[in-house]
Amino acid sequence: MDLSHHLTPWVALFRECRYLLGTQYALSTYRRKQVAANIKDPTMTRVLNDSEVYPFLFGQQEVWLPPHGFFKLFTTAPELGVSNHQEEQSERSSSPSLTLQVSSHAGRLKQFYHEWLTLPSVGKKVLSIINGYKLPFKTIPNPTFLSNKEVSIQETNDIDTSIRELIQLGAIERCNNDPNQFVSPIFLVPKPDGSKRFIINLKHLNEYLQYSKFKMEDLRSAIRLMENDCYMTTIDLKNAYYLISVSRSDRKFLRFSWKGELYQFNCLCFGLSSAPRTFTKILRPVMRYLRISGIRNVIYLDDLLTIGNSYENCLLSTSTTIRILEKLGFIINYDKSKLIPSKSQRFLGFILNSSNMTVELPREKAMHTIHLCKRLLDKNTCTVQQLAEFTGTLVACFPAIRYGPVYTKLFESTKFLTLLQMGTDYKSQVILNKYIHEDVKWWLTSLTNPISPIRTDFSPSFVPFTFTDGRSLVREALKSRGLEDSADTIINSLSNSTWKQYESSLRCWSKFTNQRQLSIFITSPEVVASFLTEMLKSVGYSSINTARSALSLLATNSEFENIGSNPVVKRVIKGVAKMKPPKPRYDVIWDATTVTEYLKTLWPHDQLSISALTEKCVTLLALCTAQRCQTLSKIKISEVKFGHNQIDIFVTDQVKTSGPGKFQPHLILPKFEDHEYWCIMTCVRDYISRTQEIRTGDELFVGLSKPHRPVGSQTIGRWIKNTLSNSGVDVTLFKAHSVRHASTSKALSNGTNIEEIRSSAGWTPTSSTFAKFYNRPIITDNNFAKSVFNIN
């Protein structure tokens, strides 16, 4: 009999009770510390210090005993949600049942894999990490055995203790020799609470790993989310790295040796360069799910700050966050977590206070930095290493010290110049002149009151979106819709020129929404209509239509509707078209004869400079084909075929007109036997011959200056513009693109069929572009080129 449906509320109640007991435990511990600090009787103080505080209700219990009642019926916690994908359902149904208590700590997220499947917008990369992380090698490392350094007796005992603890956690295990193993040295580093952290020195192994940039939230993220009199809690995840299992095939690279025994890590470990990015990556969909639910939080590796407008809201957000994290397999460190909502919380080494909206440096950290300042003031010289360490300590205080960056520039420049002069020798001496001493004294004064205001009372509570570029903005929008895995594919569907057009529109949209404190991703037709109407004051129809297309890619009205296709938005676009109809770039165009007569004088080719021959070749191609500068820049010599009476040029790279179901440009140009000075076939052949010695690639057009790289559309446009200027065309009015207008208009006036003009210029047979924008007063065969030069 399936009782899971009836007993689900009991499981939820059970988990809420666990959270309530954990909160009570944290409160009791806090009260104990407060009481102990005020007891003056030495005997009572000694008794309190000697008495052990157990994390369990009835003394120290190594194992949480399995339930004997109806809780045996439960195999999983309440579902986050139900997946709609059949594949995920099959994976979930095939997952082994999991009791409420998981015995192994290390790699435990893998045992909650079926719960991760129910998490909305979780990507395949995250699921693969949960299932067993594979190290991202650039190349497979060579077998290596690096010995440990000699350590003291105390350090030996500390390492023994750490190894025993790691074995109990399941983080490491004894192993046998492997011919392909990578053995690294180990050491201990002190933790803030006075204990030691076990580190495996993977410096040499990290050289074989791929390095990928990634973004992390930090104290600045928390400051941006704070509001006046908001409440905060902090959640600390216990042994966070150890929760991620490492693929069995890669564990041989995470080995170390101690007292003749060989050990290997079964999970993610400190010292691995890819560990921070990996852990941040798996928590992103979790934080996204919580934020969509209305929970404000900031996470930096295993430290999480939750913010609420009220005490109750913060408490509820904290409870929900803990429930979700525990459901996914994370372990909450209730000793370090601060689960009682407060207006003042310590986060990432600083005290955040929402009552007076300040960030403060903790007293012990301020006193330590003051001690370092006094030590430096007593010296006239120090090593570069000491100055660098001192500067690093000051930089770590920046959030709580106003204008701190200004008073470290002298230290940085002194260090840089000394290293430059001494050949990067960090043991070389630095003279501490009076100017350095003055800046140290400034720090000494500032550290006596290390408090910095977050923002003024007039600052808005709305957190504005910081615009960087269009691609990043759209990528964030796609991630918010659960399309993280497809984001790059969707972004690459648009050309670079399209992104350049969208950039200005998206920047304006970001500014518009920030000024009105609106969401940049989720909007309404009324807001978009207001935005487009606002743009109408300064731009025309073309820019507004581009903005509509950009917003269609970025913002949504609902889960099912594209904002750009909304009837209200479409009606605004029609109104703009009537108020500011699109206008052609030119009302008149220069006569192509002006340029063709000038080109006639550039003959014979062997008497021309390479610069003049290049400009003539480019201009002839532009006149004879009516193609864009971009298309001409994509021509490759290997795709140029010389025939007896004509030249065939195939353009295989992507151009503006490229797309599904569309043919790539195929340019067919005739040989002008009676007019060699205009013959493009002759000009291209001579140009290839003249540039053969300076050419290094397959591209037709190369730069005239060393190192003679292939040129782009802008350089080709400049060459065409020089030719127009030498021909007598007013280049202050007409740009290089005007050749496209002039050649097509001239061909039509000489009687060339309109379909042939469309074909040669790359327009579709039904396109009205030429009639609307290019035909100004004054390719089924190869008559187009002849008509431009008026050759019968």
Strand order of the largest sheet: 9-10-6-11
Rounded radius of gyration (Å): 35 Å
Question: What ranges have pLDDT less than 50 throughout 5 or more consecutive residues?
Answer: 1-7, 57-79, 81-103, 456-460, 761-781
How far apart are the termini?
Answer: 93 Å
C-alpha geometry = elongated
**CATH class designation of the largest domain:** Alpha Beta
Mean pLDDT: 79
Strand percentage? 5-15%
CATH topology of the largest domain: HIV Type 1 Reverse Transcriptase, Chain A, domain 1
Quickly give the structural class.
alpha+beta
Query: How is the main sheet built?
Result: 4 strands, antiparallel
Structure description:
Mean pLDDT is 79; it is low at 1-7, 57-79, 81-103, 456-460 and 761-781. The strands form seven sheets. A four-stranded antiparallel sheet has the order 9-10-6-11, with helices on both faces. Strands 12-13-14-17 form a four-stranded antiparallel sheet, with no helix packed on it. The chain has 29 helices and 20 strands. By secondary structure, the protein is α+β, with helices and mostly antiparallel strands. A hairpin with a 5-residue loop joins strand 4 and strand 5 (196-200). Helix 12 (384-395) runs antiparallel to helix 13 (409-422). The radius of gyration is 35 Å and the shape is elongated. It has four domains: 109-353, HIV Type 1 Reverse Transcriptase, Chain A, domain 1 (Roll), CATH 3.10.10.10; 361-453, no CATH class; 470-579, Tyrosine recombinase, N-terminal domain (DNA polymerase, domain 1, Orthogonal Bundle), CATH 1.10.150.130; 592-784, Intergrase catalytic core (hpI Integrase, Chain A, Orthogonal Bundle), CATH 1.10.443.10. The longest helix is centred in the first third of the chain and has 34 residues, at 4-37. Pfam families: Phage_integrase (PF00589), RVT_1 (PF00078). One of its GO terms (biological process) is DNA integration. One of its GO terms (molecular function) is DNA binding. InterPro entries: DNA/RNA_pol_sf (IPR043502), DNA_brk_join_enz (IPR011010), Hepadnavirus_pol/RT (IPR052055), Integrase-like_cat_sf (IPR013762), Integrase_catalytic (IPR002104), Integrase_recombinase_N (IPR010998), Rev_trsase/Diguanyl_cyclase (IPR043128), RT_dom (IPR000477). Residues 588-790 form the Tyr recombinase domain.
